[in-house]
Amino acid sequence: MKPARLLAACSIAGRLILPGVLAGALGACAVGPDFVAPAAPSDTGYTAQPLPAAAVGGPGPTGTAQYWVPAQTVEPDWWKAFASPRLDALLAAALADSPDLQSADAALRAAGELAAAQRGAFAPSASLEFLPTRQRVASTLSSPTASGANLYTLHTAQLSVAYAPDVFGGQRRQSESAQAQVDTARLQRAAARLTLASNLVNAVINQAALEEQLAADRAIVQAAQACLDAMRAARRAGQAGAADVAAQEALLAQAQAALPALERQLAQQRDLVAALAGRTPATDRLPRPSLDDLQLPARLPLTLPARLVEQRPDIQAAQAQMRAASAQIGIAQAARLPNIALSAAIGSAALTPGTLFQSGGGFWSIGADLVQPLFQGGALRHRQRAAEASYEEAAAQYRLVVLGAFQNVADVLYAIDADARGLQAALAAQQATQRALAIAQAQWRAGQLGHPAVWQAEQAWQQARVALIQARASRLSDTVALFQALGGGAVAAP
Q: Residue 110 — φ and ψ, nearest 5°?
């Protein structure tokens, strides 16, 4: 058979198969339920009681008022609301170098390629085969060759085309399920980005707070040491007893004992920030913002509940899993229906390669295969029921995720309001102990008060200062938690 004849035969096979292709593509309907996204919640708020118009912490930079902005969504780069260039640099490094995000990117690419491979089932498949064989026919049988030789070499070249029309939509449901897995991988990548950013900002806040707390504790130790030195001088002058000196030594030792644990926490927090930024502790050179470098965002977005389900990646991922489970029902139903396969082959056979495609050596075939499952021990029916139960499970999981998200947001809103009141109290306590220290120092200089009383006043002031540092850090961290609870712009993020 000559190449021109081969092409002509291929054209005939194509004309025979193409109508089946078009019929399958245009006339078929997909079995199984068409997925419908769950209705958005009708809630208009997150808390049982109305929120105050603002969360006010007190005067000065530590007590910045935070105002709710209803119906506003969260920006993908929400951390810029803290107005810290150093924090922005840390986030940029983390998003570029994080192994978590690199792993999520690879998983997303893999899911996309698998979905593309699944879409290949809609097109006909073609294969070209060349098969040389050396054969010997038994002497008692007739030779298939014209020469009558019992030993010969047969060269066969064949083009095969096959197509399975998607009459009942099983392939479309397979493609739908694969695309849902792509969406799930994309949303998991968004969730990984949000988690990384939230963890890094919180780690930076904790490190800055620990640095200030360590500085305050070291000041307490220095004050205790100065008090002990003064007490020892007073004892040498006969103005203090050994019991007073011993009591002060115990206070100094107690203050010093708190330092190693705090230094360990600070070192570990620095290592955590380095790891989240994609660096080892030994190679990390990125600058860290101090607590004063982090500006408390004054405007807090309050995404509408109906918008929250579209913004949070965990909710959207649960919905994608529902869509995949719904498609599996259609796949299971299609497996119980007839399966049609069309095939065509054309080729040539010859005893020598040089005589391939010459007249008389050509062959072709066209066929159709219709298979209807009749009995498989109930396996197909049970698989469909299992798919239906899996969809119900996915729907329940979706509702559970939505409930958890709403609880998460409500908890954070209450926490921010409580943080504001707690910061007010901590600021008032710090200011009161500072005034008490100033009075005690004035009385000590006037000879009206002993040095231990001054030390106690200074210790109270430093402890109030530590409490204020912790209250500031808590308010910053709960602001981060709000951005995270509202989805952090994760679904729209690159």
A: -65, -45
